[in-house]
């Protein structure tokens, strides 16, 4: 069975269009530049035709195997893949997929949606398989799609894998949150709504909504907005006391001169 799955993956990968992350970055730059020339207009969300998850779904290669000259950009001093560089590519891919959702299956580069500027707001989660090491000499396959859409925010789900010894090996999964703004950046602008086509997609949307509610709750509980309650203050005080050397503090107090000793006679 495992051998059959490996052969299927090899066949699928051979038929995938060899679109690289560099191509994505260049096309994305062209797409965003074209949006700057479109007139700003108000958008009625109710008149926007919903798009499916498959319309944003895409796969891209980081060609470490087929283009050896780029390996130096991705290898660290130990010879493994630089995680920071992968984060950059994940960020680019998340923005790409977000625009693809609003584009609705049309080719990227020439906008078919209202003017917007999409930026990454947060990395909601990243899961790395600790028992696997990503090869710096094999192509990395990036796959992803938009998995939840709010009014101006989107959740993008992505996966990274490689073909090692003829078999697909999954290394990483991530969810990024992106937000859509007017090209000026001053105000938010609505996304094209998301339409589900299966119970599996409905479950993804449900989880995306639950994750948004959790983010809102954590933001409301942030110390930047809400002071610690009585229990939290006691915990903080206990942490502080554990960092204090009581004996040293007592010695310091014992060595302090009395005020009367500083008076002129």
Automatic annotation (TrEMBL):
It comes from the Eukaryota. Residues 182-205 are annotated as: Disordered. GO terms for cellular component: mitochondrion. Keywords: Hydrolase, Repeat, Transit peptide. Transmembrane segments: none annotated. One of its GO terms (biological process) is acyl-CoA metabolic process. PROSITE patterns: HOTDOG_ACOT (PS51770). Residues 186-197 have a biased composition (Polar residues). One of its GO terms (molecular function) is fatty acyl-CoA hydrolase activity. The keyword Transit peptide applies. The keyword Hydrolase applies. Residues 53-184 form the HotDog ACOT-type domain. InterPro entries: HOTDOG_ACOT, HotDog_dom_sf. Belongs to the acyl coenzyme A hydrolase family. This is Acyl-coenzyme A thioesterase 9, mitochondrial. It comes from Toxocara canis.
